[in-house]
Amino acid sequence: MPGKVHVHGFFENQDQLAEQDQRFKGRTSLFQDRISEGNASLLLTGVKVQDEGRYQCDTFTIEEGKETSYVNVKVTAPLQKINMTQTENLIICSSDEIYPEPHLSWSISPPSSRTFRKTTTVHKTEKHLYNISSSLTLSDSEEDLDHICTISTPSKQRRAAWRRRHSVTIISGEATISCSSSDTPLLGFSLVWRFNQREIIVTKNEDDEHRVSEEWKQHVKDVSESGRLTLQHLSADHEGTYTCEVSNDGDTSMAQISLRLPEGKDASPGMGSTVAAIVIFATICLIIFCILKH
Hints:
By secondary structure, the protein is mainly β.
């Protein structure tokens, strides 16, 4: 290591730590029952990015005298998962606490000649780890295009995809919305349906166990093996944006669907009958008035 920092010492059958550098205090040990067999391995716990570097090991024996060996230590903080959110006309892709410094790129599927405005920032934390975030500006006409965010390091790569699907109309208080155009069962995947980005409707874990939130129990009619969601007893209060998030082994796919009532239709289930009752009542009153007049 630069400057020959003292990491650990052992002689006269015991640890000698008087010269140990403070940053290694309480984090080093030897396998003392193996030293007599020639094993001078060092156990380093609580590893930090700053521990990366070249370590020199000096051993002394009566038979062999002094021997020196070197070990190059590389530290990694693996890329675990990509977080993807959508707010207004922005898709935000991010991941935190990564080392070494990651790379982020955007792509479109199917390929498009259009250019998209994007902004990417990388922040180095006090722990020398990296947080990376990028936003992509959307237009209103980008339906059925996969916007793919890829974050990579030398040892790992993760992807997250976002798609705006065609809007769905509520008919007779019911609607069915899908995560994808495929009916392939989501075996080994986790699933989350949300309303207006925040309110969780239903979740499914990798063991295929579904859980419907209390507020939506009366509205969730069915959740298929492919994640297709059928809703019932819907009104104008349920118009809005529905988001499906499917994850597996760190990769994520999101689909956004707008749910709308037919144009010119009133959402209140009883409004039609109320209007009809008013019309009938008015007609009866008119007939009675005419009879009395005669």
